[in-house]
Amino acid sequence: MVDPERLASETLLRCGQPRLANGRAIDVERIARDFCKVEVMYISDLNPSGKSLLGLYAPMMNAIMVNCDNIQVRQRFTIAHEIGHVQLEHGPGNAQSMFELPDLETFECTEEDDGFSGTDDRFTGLRRRAEIRANQFAAHLLMPAGLVREVWRQENGTRNA
After folding, report:
1. How far is it, in rounded angstroms, from Cα 48 to Cα 61?
2. Which of 72-76, 86-90, 112-116 has the weakest average pLDDT?
3. Torsion sign over Cα 117, 90, 30, 82
4. What domains can be seen in the chain, in order of their start residue?
5. How far apart are CA 72 and CA 109, in angstroms?
6. Does 102 or 4 have the greater pLDDT score?
7. How far apart, in whole angstroms, are the C-alpha atoms of residue 114 and residue 155?
8. Where is 70: in which H helix or E strand?
9. Edge-to-edge strand order for the sheet containing 55-58?
10. pLDDT band for position 90 (50/70/90)?
11. S-S: 78 plus which of 53, 55, 109, 152, CB 3.0-4.6 Å?
């Protein structure tokens, strides 16, 4: 089983750790679009199955859909989380066309899914484990140790972080 932290680090290394214009945050939309070759779509009131979602990854459409009614920070985590599903479940650019899929699978992520951490893993089924791993991937993708140290040094004016 692939370690989400290691995979997030490898993803950042392979895609050149793209940053937003502020230089202090990872550009997850660019990673999705340019590295994973997945379209990012912002949709108001995202609820295709009748349940309000934070986001979803639809392999058959090769798309990440994000609920644009959420604040930007939440949207960025959702994109990183869905990239986790892309990388952990399918690998970069490996989404099948909808004509090759036996059923229309999606990875739907609700606010309930967002609360799962590694400590919950032993009590959960396969779906919950996939959500936990996607959350772990997202955390490491958005906050790589080197970037966190760099920003800390800038804020605190020290070299020994």
Report:
1. 14
2. 112-116
3. negative
4. 4-156 (1.10.10.2910)
5. 17
6. 4
7. 29
8. none
9. 39-43, 63-67, 55-58, 107-109
10. low
11. 55
The CB-side HSE value for 43 (13 A sphere, CA atoms) comes to 19
For the segment 112-158, what is each residue's pLDDT rounded down to a tens digit?
Answer: 655 555 554 444 467 778 888 999 999 999 999 888 888 888 888 86
Looking at residue 154, what is its pLDDT? Answer: 87
Strands 39-43 and 63-67: parallel
Helices (H), the chain: 4-15, 28-30, 72-85, 111-114, 126-142, 145-156
Q: How far is Cα 54 from Cα 73, in angstroms, rounded to an integer?
A: 12
Joined together, the tokens standing for residue 140 give: 């490491």
**Digit-coded pLDDT (tens) for 32-71:** 999 999 999 999 999 887 888 999 998 888 999 999 999 9
d(CA 161, CA 152): 7
Residue in the block written with tokens 């995202």: 46
Which of 78, 92, 89, 114 lies closest to 31 in space, CA to CA?
92
User: Two tokens at 36?
Assistant: 């994973």
